[in-house]
Amino acid sequence: MMEALFGAFPLAYATILNALYIPIFMMIFWLIFRAVAFEFREHSEGKFLWNFAFGAGSFMAALGQGFALGSVIEGITVNEAGHFIGSTWDWLDWRSLQCPDSGCRNSSWISSATNAGD
To answer: Where does the chain cross the membrane (predicted)?
Structure first.
């Protein structure tokens, strides 16, 4: 998605990436961690540790995504030219803390409702 945003709207890409660098990096890091945990789980004797790592990676990636969504809903501070002028921690406010909370609750509710028949 970010490549399409870069190709179609480079100024929007630069502004969003500068404003949300920490949540996007957090999301990417934990998605990679989750994939590594998934692969190591297949080749290990004790699967509990890797199951926990997979769950933690999923949870933290959802938090990063919720932080980014909450920050976009709150709004990104830009100047007249459309360049980001806020600080590194502008994404962290009460609305960006509520989006990952509700997103994680909804994800756990959906997964429990989906797996109830298993």
So the answer is: 12-36, 48-69
The answer to whether 88 and 22 have CB atoms below 8 angstroms apart is: yes
Name the DSSP class of 46: -
Q: What residue type is 90 in one-letter code? A: D
Question: How many angstroms separate the CA atoms of 102 and 92, rounded?
Answer: 16
Q: What is the rounded CA–CA span in Å between residue 90 and residue 22?
A: 10
DSSP state for residue 117 in the 8-state scheme: G
Q: Are 78 and 9 in contact (CB under 8 A)?
A: no
Contact 103, 69 (CB under 8 A): yes
* DSSP codes, the chain: -HHHHHHH-HHHHHHHHHHTHHHHHHHHHHHHHHHHHHHHHHT-S--HHHHHHHHHHHHHHHHHHHHHHHHHHH---B-TTS-B-S-TTTT-SHHHHHHHHHHHHHHHHHHHHHGGG-
| pLDDT tens-place string over residues 16-68 | 888 889 999 998 999 999 889 989 988 888 888 888 888 888 888 888 888 88
